[in-house]
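Trying the structure run again after the queue cleared.
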Amino acid sequence: MPSETDQIGVHVNGNDASDIAWGLGGLLDDMGEAALMGKRVRKPVARHFTWDKVADSTIDVHAGVVANRGKY
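Done. Tokens:
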């Protein structure tokens, strides 16, 4: 579990409006910490979500669709 100084986001239940409001409220209450989280998350996002990886994933999905065409 990341320490508070390593935190890069807020975990909420995406199907629960009150939980989402709680998460957003916490960020709005502490804009300084929200800005720090934004700075901390840039490197992991840049490492894991490059355009090359997005393109590879898209190609994999399309290949799977073509391979399974007519099976359903």
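The first helix runs from residue 17 to 29. Worth checking whether this holds up in the mutant runs.
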